[in-house]
Design goal:
alpha/beta, 3-stranded parallel sheet
């Protein structure tokens, strides 16, 4: 199964890396975060990495341009309700029943 479109929520180190890898496979990538500055910072970093790859001969300028063009950066992505967390999950986190600080959730936090 080929993945054609991906939305990555969180433009941090992990999210930015995931977005870059998907973009390099040719998938259409939507990168989203709570602040535009986080997205801008990650996109600048990805462009820097791609420039280094071009300098090392790992990629051509055309491949670099294609990866950057594929990564559509959306700041308004949360306006679509299908990307919002469900209300029950929000209530659990707000009540302190789930999350890293509580040590409970989908993963065991240590």
């Amino acid at each position: 199964m080929k993945i054609n479109t991906v939305m990555v929520i969180g433009a941090g180190q992990m999210g930015g890396g995931i977005a870059q890898v998907f973009a390099q496979t040719g998938a259409k990538v939507y990168l989203n975060d709570i602040k535009q500055e986080y997205i801008d910072k990650r996109m600048a970093f990805i462009e820097k990495l791609l420039t280094k790859d071009v300098a090392k001969g790992k990629k051509t300028e055309e491949e670099k341009a294609a990866v950057l063009a594929i990564m559509e950066v959306l700041y308004e992505g949360y306006s679509d309700s299908k990307y919002r967390p469900c209300p029950l999950l929000r209530q659990y986190v707000k009540a302190g029943w789930l999350g890293k600080k509580t040590g409970r959730g989908f993963y065991k936090y240590e």
